[in-house]
Design goal:
148 residues, mainly alpha, F1FO ATP Synthase, 4 helices
Length: 148
């Protein structure tokens, strides 16, 4: 497992370094592009290959349940930790989506209210609809948390 994580880290650092290099020195010649393409493809292949290997080989370790003795409080296992991360994902993604939705709606609301102050109520309804996305994610996370 340590070897796979090392491959992931090296491939990720390689992709980041290549991206930074190409940002500051874009490729102008076809020869330079021909030299960089295999390196980039190999880095991406190693990264995703190691990620798949970590997922398939690490599943048995992550989902292994520790034996609990009677009367001894259970420790949080890796499987429980992954379950909590999975429970947190709906809230995380829904708040990101709500933030993306509220940004343009809020800007348009301020522009509309500055021209017509009587539009304030309608703009609040649209902002509330966009913010409801985050509330749905939070409710889903709470319901999932009760299942664990």
């Amino acid at each position: 497992m340590t070897t796979i994580i090392a491959f992931l880290t090296i491939a990720l650092i390689g992709m980041i370094a290549t991206g930074v290099f190409l940002h500051y020195r874009p490729l102008e010649s076809a020869r330079a592009q021909r030299l960089f393409m295999p390196t980039l493809v190999i880095n991406i292949a190693v990264f995703f290959g190691a990620q798949l290997a970590a997922a398939f080989l690490g599943v048995s370790d992550a989902m292994a349940a520790a034996e609990v003795a009677a009367g001894v409080p259970a420790e949080i296992t890796i499987g429980m930790g992954l379950a909590f991360i999975g429970i947190a994902l709906p809230t995380a993604f829904s708040t990101i989506a709500a933030g993306i939705a509220v940004g343009p709606i809020g800007a348009a609301s301020l522009a509309a209210v500055s021209e017509k102050p009587e539009m304030f109520g309608r703009t609040l309804v649209y902002l509330g609809l966009a913010e409801g996305i985050a509330i749905y994610g939070l409710v889903l996370s709470i319901l999932l948390l009760n299942r664990v």
